[in-house]
Each structure stands twice: as C-alpha cells, then as structure tokens.
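Our platform keeps sequence and structure together, in a single record for each protein. This encoding replaces a full spatial description with a residue-level series of whole-number codes. We quote a single record here, exactly as it is kept in our systems:
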Amino acid sequence: MHLTPEQQLIINSKGNIKINAVAGSGKTTTIVEYAKTRPKNCKILYLAFNKSVKLEAIKKFEKEGLKNVKVETAHSLAYKHIIFRYRYKVRLQGYKINEIAELLRIKGTGEKHAEYIVANHISKFITYYCNSDKQKIEELNYLDIVTDHNAKTFVRINYKYIENQTIQFLSKMDKGEIEINHDFYIKKFQLSNPHLKYDYILFDEGQDASAAMLDIILKQKATKVIVGDTHQQIYSWRFAINALEKVNFNTFNLSTSFRFGQDISNLAMQILNSKR
C-alpha cells in the first residue's frame, strides 16, 4: 500500500496526537495502518461515531488480523459499563414534554401552559448537563444556552425551580424509579471515573465529541489519538465540542482528498475564489 508522507508521519508518531483530516483523505486507512505498527500484545480501543461506522471498522480491523483492537461507540462502551452494573432500564425514545411535566407533577406559574414551558427547559437542561464535563448540575448556568429574549426572562424568574426539578428528574433516573435515557448513562459513565484498560485509544469524529466523553478519554493513561475534521461539526446543537481545539496534542494533518481529481479541485477553487 502506498501511503502519503502525511500518513507516514502519523503512523511513525509517538505520544498523544490529534489529526485534522479532510473528507476522503484516507482517515480510516491511516488509523488501521497506525494500529498495525503498534506492538501485537498491546490493547487498542477504537471509538467509532455510530453503529454503522463501528460495524464497518470491525470488518477492516478483522481483515488485517488485528485481534488486539476493540471497536466500540461511546454509547456501547458506556452501556456495557453502566447498564449491566446498575441494572437500569433504558428508554429507547426520549421523554416527551408532557411526560416530564406529569412525572414531576409540575404546576403552572400563572403563564398559559407554564408547566410545559418549565418541562421543556428541564429537558434541555438535562441534555446540557449530561453532555457536559461538569460533576454537578449547579456548576452550569442554564441561561448560557437560552437565546430567545422571552424565554430568558421566563428562565430568570423561575431558575431555581427549573434547576431543582431538573435535579429531581435526574435523581429519579439514577434511583431507577423511571427509565433512563441514552444521555444519562453516558453521564453516569463519566461520573464513575472509569479506568479503561487499553494502551491506545483511537477516538474518531473528534469534532463532534461530547465534553463528557472527552473528559473520560483524557483521564486515561493510554496513548490517545483524536481524529476529526474541524469543518464537519454538525452536533453543536447537542452541545458537542470540537476536541481538536480542546486538546494540546501534537497536530498532524491529512489534507489530500482521494474522492476527486485535480481538475475538479481546480474548478471548485475557482468557484470559491469567485465568491470572495
């Protein structure tokens, strides 16, 4: 296999690194080759972005005979550590606003449908907290993510009540009184301070990492490789962070795309330049 100079530099690297890889630049091939050059007796964890990527990665690593590589998603890894231990029941779909209002017996505050407005903020606060790296919900200011002027006013007036009810809902999940959601067991995994027994952790799609998952990875003793594309972040609306910008690792690049030839590249650059 012919590798580019950029790929060769990554494969020969040592210590924690981050790789900014453009679309079609042979990211997975590079990671597989990186794993192949590591000692056969070392344990490697490859964290894929979703289940379909996980299944494809398993095929590629198995094809190369890399039996020392374990492929997981963040959720599958957390699930195995948390669900089996605590015997939680997982809710496949998220809680609807009216369900949150009913479970917490939220009462109106004078404004029309106020109980549902409160429940909606509780739902968002839970997502914000579970994806954060904070230990306690009080360490976050929910107002930081409220952008609408009227909503901000409502939250300011009812902040303590919204915060307390958010804590109550999380407590109900933690005690097993109600089913937990997927965000919750990721958070529980982070709060449990897990020790992952791997020598290397390869973290894919780092531009869409949750702060909770990144916190878990950074606390491990393993050599860490974070791969992503700064220009392809799509989950910031779910409070994802760009891990490539958060970690102070040696930086490598995969800047050559193999998805198109030079003619198409030249044409694309002409169009982009004309729009400047």
The beta strands are 17-21, 44-48, 69-73, 200-203, 209-210, 223-228, 240-241, 250-254. Residues 38 and 44 are 9 Å apart (CA to CA).
